[in-house]
Amino acid sequence: MNIVCLDLEGVLVPEIWIAFAEASGIPELKKTTRDEPDYDKLMKWRIGILKEHGLGLKEIQDTIATIDPMPGAKEFLDELRSMTQVIIISDTFTQFATPLMKKLGWPTIFCNSLEVADNGEITGFKMRIENSKLTTVKALQSIGYETIASGDSYNDLGMIKASKAGFLFRSTDKIKADNPELPAFETYDELLEAIRKVM
Length: 199
What we know:
The chain has about 200 residues and is α/β, with parallel strands linked by helices. It has helices spanning about 15-25, 40-55, 55-65, 75-85, 95-105, 130-140, 155-160, 175-180, 190-199, and strands at about 1-5, 85-95, 110-115, 120-125, 145-150, 165-170, 185. The model has no long low-confidence stretch (mean pLDDT about 95).
């Protein structure tokens, strides 16, 4: 029994924070988990910048409404889901992910949630579980699934390395150089073929 675990941002949809950095004109918000391995530190830093600029959930959701999945992402996901079970495991938040899940045909996603004040200010965040990607993959393995995982960032490496097969997808040169044992792909066709071979 196989189950494929995919990252969301950078794999199926563009990076939300990069899109918001461009829309808001705040270049510091372009920093992602490709740059900062410590997600907790990264999110606290982001929330501080939002507060400083008086920006909240609504402004980010307005940007997300303009984001479309990467070209070919929905077709890739549809094809993959016709072959096996697929779960998207993301460090994003339900308040960000829902409109994107609609555009991807409502795949299953495990993610986190934001703490939002009545005025829309993002005051904090609640992680579903610590080290969520690796922990989720291990939990799936504990109930009889063999996992196949793919992602692009530092926070994906745990689930990729713990899986029966794992692949980097559109990752950075640094992450690829630091993990030469991991096959790295740039196109959905290559990734689909690699997954098909290990199933």
